[in-house]
Design brief:
Blueprint: E1 6-7, E2 27-28, E3 43-44, H1 61-66, E4 84-86, H2 88-91, H3 106-122, E5 127-131, E6 134-138, E7 149-151, H4 158-171, E8 177-180, H5 189-196, E9 199-210, E10 223-226, E11 235-243, H6 248-257, H7 265-274, E12 279-286, E13 289-299, E14 302-310, H8 319-332, E15 338-344, H9 348-356, E16 360-369, E17 379-380, E18 396-397
Parallel strand pairs: 7-8, 14-15
Antiparallel strand pairs: 1-11, 2-4, 3-4, 5-6, 6-7, 8-16, 9-15, 9-16, 10-11, 11-12, 12-13, 13-14, 17-18
Length: 412
Amino acid sequence: MPLGVAVSPLIVASGRADGPMMPSASAVVPFGGAGSVASSSWSKCPRGGPEVCRRARPVSPATRKREPVAWRARRGGCASGGPVTADPASVAGGDALVAPKRVLPPEDVELARELEEVAHRAWPPLRERTHGGWVLRESAGSSRRGNSVWARGDVPDLAAALRAVHSFYTAAGLPPTFQITPVVRPAGLLDALDAAGYDDGGPTDVCVAPLAALRAPRPDAAEHRPGPAGGPGTDRRVESAAADLPDERWLAVAGDVLATFAGQRVGTLAVVRAMELPQRYVTVFVDGRPVGVGRGVLDGSWLGIYSMATLPAARGVGVAGRTLAELAHWAGARGAERAYLQVERHSVVARGLYARRGFRPVYGYSYRRLPAPSGLQRSAVAPRAATENVASENVASAWPAAGRAGGGTASR
């Protein structure tokens, strides 16, 4: 089906040094007992609810082995009061977007819950089932968020709930997986996952910014920008196109940069067309060639920014900044006031841009997955739907689907 595309030129700042660097939030670091970490920048955060103040627990040797020190934050807290925190810049090499992964300041607890709600609506799973306060999500292996438990509330019997999770995902041929945020419930979940042998992967940081920080003046003509070399004859013509659905050019760029978009156009478009929230797909062109993309989702006052991608040859000419500004103008005209995004720790260049554009970290999350039983061979599960705004989100599964021999993808 042909898609209408509106081309709108836009001048944006390069994103190299044009915006305030936001203050770093506090990140929790374990202390005391096995696996303690010493730091000269310790301070106590205010008391709060159960997600804010937790007693310290010793870090097991197995956990120390698999968790990088910079985000080993499961066991924050102290016996006498609030959790012990450290400036993330002191534990993450100056990265301003490192967010707390286990314990939040009180003012961000409700914000984290709200952001998980809007992220769930921004790319809902193909299939879901509730068990008590948990949402079991399944999307044929297309993303970790879409194929993991959203432990948003309590369950009456934790052991029974874990068995239900195991049954749900093994029936789909997928590894039982939990998305772990600072606001997961119930309180004993992390201990139970440790005892069951769930591994830990991540982390990803969720960041927010006022929408005004992302907007820029809109000119009447395409802009000409110097190329990465900055020398004579390197000027590049930069334009952008926007539509309510992704066209072939958008999908081609996303597939070249984000592995989860390769070979899954049919499934992606099926999910996109089933979405109820307003969406915007921006493609940026340099000298007429599509080189960058981004996706925006409007949910009340929130703009969700997803699937940001720039071809390597086009980096350094402001493609990502232009994409952000285009999405911000679209959402702002429809009442949005704030933006959020999710960014992995290894995306160093993107994190620098987002920090300069006024994003601040709110919370971090990771995934706990039950390893496949010994003796089973790992096989890739073919993704069938588009994914969230982090690269390398495919789920590799060695779990055989119930009632079938060997592995395979689950039905919708």
